[in-house]
Every structure is written in C-alpha cells, then in structure tokens.
Amino acid sequence: MPSSEPIIWQFSLSTVNAIMWVALLLLALWFGFRLRWGRLVALVAFLTFDLIVFGGFVRLTDSGLGCPDWPGCYGQLLPAQASAQINQAIAEQGGTHGPVSHGKAWIEMLHRYLASFIGALILVMFVRALLAQRRRSGATLTDAATPVNWYWPALLLVVVIAQGMFGKWTVTLKLMPIVVTAHLMGGMLLLAMLLWFWTRQRQREGDTRAMTVAVSGRTRVLAWLALAVLTVQIFLGGWVSTNYAVLACADFPGCNGSLTPQVDWAEGFAFARALGRNPDGSFLSIEALRAIHWAHRWGALITTVVVIAAALALMRAHAALRQQAILIKLVLLAQIGIGIATVLLDQPIVLATAHNAMAALLLATLVVATCRVSGLREWQPFAISTNLRKQK
C-alpha cells in the first residue's frame, strides 16, 4: 500500500483543490438538471460505454499508477500542477518506461474526470426521481418522463459509488488483479443497468424500435443464458488483461504450438494476490499465465456457440428482432477476429482497446435484446409513469 493510512479514508486532494473539484461537480449537476430525462439517461449510458473503452486504454498503456494517489495527482487536481513530483518520480524510476510519466498521469486523470462526471449525472437522476416522487400527487409534472419511483436510480447510484471505491483501490492496492477485474465488471454492470433502464423507458414512450416482443420460453432462456455466459467470458478477459497474460499463448489456435499446453489452474486462478505474485510472494509462473489465457480461449469458444444459438433463436422468433440478431452476430464475429489479431500481432494497443470496446458493445446488444423479450410485468417496481406526457 502506498501509505499506512486506511485505504477507505485516503483522500489526497488539498483543501483548495478539493473545493475546485466539488465546484466542477456542481457544474456537472447543473448540466444534468437542464437535460431532458430521456437524453440524460441516453447520455449517461453513452459516457459509461466510453469510460469502459477508455479504462481499457488506461490498462493497456500501463497508466493505472500514473498518479499513485487518489482522487488527485500528487495531491493536485491537474497533472500540470504536479509537474515537479512527476519529474521526481520519473527520475527515481529511471525514465518514463516506469509506471509514472506526464502522459500516463494525464491518461489516468482524464479517466477519473470522466468517471466523476458520470457519477454526478447519476446523482442527478436519483435526485430528479425523488423530486418526481414527491410531486406525484400534483396536477402537473414539468419534468415529463421522469420515473415516479426512485428505486432504479438509487440502485444505479449505489453501483457507481462502489465503482468509485474500486477505482480508488485499483490505485491504492497497486493494480491488484482481482480489484482491477472487479472494477471492469462494475463498469459493465453499470452499462447493462443503464441500457436496460433506457430500453424500458423507450418502450413506455412507444418507440417501436425497442418494442417488447412476445417469444417462446426457449428463446427467452437462450437470451438470458447468452448474457450470463458472456458475463463470465468478460470476467475471464478482464483476468487475462489485468494479469498481463495476453501473450502467454502467442499463436492461434494452439498455445505455443500445442493444443494441450502445460498450465497451472490453481496458481492462475488464485484471486487473493498482488500483481504478478503468488499469495506466498513468489513470482507467478508462465504455466499460471497460460492457464489464464487458455481459460479465456475456451470461454470464447463456449460463448460463441451460445451467443450464436441465442441470435438465431431471436431471428426466428420475430421479424422485429431480426436486425438486432444480425447486429449481435456481426459484433461477435468482429470480436473474434480482433481477439485473434491481438494475439498474432503481438497485442497492438489499438486492437487490444478495440477488443475491450467490442466486449462492451456485445454486452449492450444482448442486454437490449434480452430486455425486449423479457416483458414488462416483472419490472413494474421501476415503472415509468404512464400519466406523464411523452417527449419526442
């Protein structure tokens, strides 16, 4: 740990910089209150997708410790204010090849700024939902399409706060793999929740492109199964990335020329350990890294079969789902191609970042499809008032 101070209480900004940070968040709150509800939800979902992609770029450029404190950068709001400390860290590590550099500091802080902005907008959603709840007995609601019930925005707020804590622990625990992977999964969960919420709202506003479609129980089960299997696969992909195991198998379809590589599953999937180390402090073996990579390869095969089966079932179930099913298959094929190219071309940052983006996009397409075939009845606690006037 970077300090003896309890992790949960670490807050590195000075008083002046903390005030500036809060002032910027207040501007974000003001902006969120001015947006129409539908645009606000869509914007937060879009920015969350961007944050996931940018978070992958942070990992791939080794910028996670570009500012080794939280939420500031050496106690400052901007890396430019911490130029002297960054220069000193560069000198101590023997050059910019280490975890700290001016570029890495800016990459890490831009990621934090975007995350803070998203958190502020979700807080706006929660407050607006509470206000709408209080105005429910009034004759007129000026904020049309704001949900009367506040439970769903409250859940979003809980998730984004947890994401903020995992973002902090990513730094304070020195990129501990399970923490970084959990941070990735939290981002994916937030994106899935936002897209589900956004799709439900579009349905209640009468958007035919998001209409609920009656399908057989088998099709619905396949959609949910594909979503569950993809979630596991995203976790495995995150575990590969956070353990830097992408090139443990440097060819395809085998692993270093073998379809039965020597692996160490127990060591590879020991979660309570530091980056590159075993729980006893020894270095992680190449067999453990191969196990991590090979699990992701097998996961990709299983995911491909299940997702294709779900897409075919959706396509046959209803004409309204045909385009969405085609999109799911196209994104899946693109993801497979990018994943193979990432290995064969020695993990170029552009392809590796695109691989992360395609995982989020595939999740998004499956969430929307699953939402459309799951009906509305079970989600009435989060219903949007049917008495509110529609917005275009």
First CA to last CA: what distance? 51 Å
Q: Rg from C-alpha positions?
A: 23 Å
Query: Which secondary-structure class do the elements indicate?
Result: mainly alpha
Unreliable runs, pLDDT <50, ≥5 residues? Answer: 1-9, 139-145, 377-392
Helix and strand run: HHHHHHHHHHH
Quantity of strands, as a count = 0
Envelope shape: flat
Q: Main beta sheet: strand number and arrangement?
A: none
Mean pLDDT across all residues, rounded?
88
Fraction of residues in β-strands = under 5%
Number of helices: 11
Which percent bin holds the helix content?
A: 55-70%
Number of domains: 2
Please, could you describe this protein's structure?
The chain is mainly alpha-helical. The protein folds into 2 domains: 1-208; 213-374, no CATH class. Helices cover 63% and strands 0% of the residues. It has 11 helices and no strands. It has helices at residues 15-34, 37-60, 83-93, 102-134, 151-172, 177-204, 217-242, 265-268, 286-317, 322-344, 349-373. The protein is flat, with a radius of gyration of 23 Å. The N and C termini lie far apart (51 Å).
